[in-house]
Amino acid sequence: MYLSWFYFSFFLLILFNIHLCSSSICTEYYSSQASSQQCECEDVSSNDQPSISLKCISLTKSPHFPSNLQYQTIEIESCLEDFNFATIPFNDLTLNTLRIRHCNLQNLNDQSFLNIKHFEKFSLENSTIKSLTTSNENFQDIFSANSFQTLKSLTLKNVHYHQVHKHDKKLNFELLLQQLPYLYRLELINIHLDNYRYHEIQSIGQNLTYLSLMNTHQTSLVPIEYLTVLQRLLLRHLPEIFQSQPLISSLGKLKHLKYILFEHNQLKTIEHLQSNTIDDIDLSSNLIESIDEYTFEHVPKLRQLTLSNNPLNSIDKNAFCGIEHLQRLSIHIKHSSISPLDNCLLINYPQLQISQDSQTKLQCDCQLKTIFHIKRQQTNQSINRIFKLNQGCLLRNESLPAIQLYELDNYFNCSSIHSCNRLCQDRKIKVLKTEIPSSFNVQVNPKDTSLSMSLYSFFSYLHLLLLLCFLYL
């Protein structure tokens, strides 16, 4: 009886699977056309509604997408022939995500993305616009279509143009945020942005939480406080932005900002940074040589700090004073084999995860000697895990080979005072240098000088005559 029921259930399961296969949208619409359209089809469900995802590779012609279907994703990649928008292939579709990569786009116009329903994500990467027939002959015109009113994520990466006028290749950042009012993620890489400011703009980017700009060529950025809900800010290869406006000091006005990444921006310092919300900072590949004491005291929630590929020479023992829970520090550097860390950090931050090159060695000094003796005596005091008893250290500014830690007594005659005890208790007095501006240089007229000397000589001679008369009398 049990076996009969088992076979019967198994038979019903087979029938159910056959029914599913027969009702598959991919099977119905794309099984016979897959070879001609070169699109891979996958049945998916979105909000309990049957839909499909298409991945079309090496297209030789623009495919036809039935408008009665629901599309979760359409990916078009590596077109063998120009992708022609004259056939308006995406109009009136129900489509969530569209990605176009490695294609030449022909006849792109104002109607190319019209009436797309539930359109939320658009990505255009490594592609060339060969012909553009929009109203203003500018690529930005396409984002005025009604379909983009619901867009939430936009990625434009390495988009090239076959246009005559250089200004036609540029996008305006503020206008783009106006065209896409519900955008929460924007990523622009190697896209030209202009510097035009719309002064009448009152509110833009009210939903933007993620902004990534890389090599976008503009020299200024919209005042960052306009982007009130921004959580992640990534700026790469944009040094002029930091030189033209007080961007770093303005970050404290963003009450939701968690992460900043400022790579390749020629930054020499990170002064004036204040934020009660930022917990992750990446300053890789800049020109930072030192991290002074209390640098991050106004970023109390900082958990991760990345300083890799900077010409770092020193990180003060009080550099992280004021931070509540610093967890990770990355300092991969190539210019020196000596770690920039003050050795007191090893004993004052024993739980800190420090990431640096395996060939980098600690600096030989009295602090390291003290730490070595503490570790060797197996006291209860914790030492950071990057410290090893059998490792060597290097003397700064000397070309001597590595010194083993047990040899430090031969090189340093240190006092018994533990110099790492007063963590975050003292501040160094900074000497402010005041330079006289060149505009205050006084230009002296040679004639005035000559006259002054003549008058001086005359009154001196007169004074001498009076003195002689007085003596004579």
Short description:
By secondary structure, the chain is of the alpha/beta class.
Question: How would you describe this structure to a colleague?
Answer:
The protein is built from nine helices and 21 strands. It has about 475 residues and is of the alpha/beta class. It has a 16-stranded mixed sheet that branches. Strands 19-20-21 form a three-stranded mixed sheet, with no helix packed on it. Strand 17, helix 7 and strand 18 form a beta-alpha-beta unit.
Distinctive features:
16-stranded mixed sheet, 19% helix, single chain, alpha/beta, 9 helices, 473 residues, three-stranded mixed sheet, 21% strand, 21 strands
Structural class: alpha/beta
Shape designation:
extended
Number of alpha- plus pi-helical segments: 9
Tell me the series of helices and strands, N- to C-terminal. Answer: HHHEEEEEEEEHEEEHHEEEEEEHEEHEEH
* Low-pLDDT regions: 15-22, 431-436, 438-455
Count the beta strands: 21
Multimeric status of the protein = single chain
Q: Work out the radius of gyration.
A: 35 Å
**Main sheet overview:** 16 strands, mixed
Give the overall average pLDDT: 84
Strand content: 15-25%
> What's the end-to-end separation, in Å?
156 Å
In which range does the helix fraction lie?
10-25%
Would you spell out the secondary-structure blueprint of this structure?
Blueprint: H1 2-22, H2 25-30, H3 34-37, E1 39-46, E2 49-57, E3 70-77, E4 83-84, E5 94-101, E6 104-106, E7 121-129, E8 153-161, H4 173-179, E9 185-189, E10 210-214, E11 232-236, H5 239-244, H6 247-250, E12 259-263, E13 280-282, E14 290-291, E15 304-306, E16 314-315, E17 328-330, H7 344-348, E18 353-355, E19 362-363, H8 366-376, E20 392-394, E21 403-404, H9 446-472
Parallel strand pairs: 2-3, 3-5, 4-6, 5-7, 6-7, 7-8, 8-9, 9-10, 10-11, 11-12, 12-13, 13-15, 14-16, 15-17, 17-18, 19-20
Antiparallel strand pairs: 1-2, 20-21
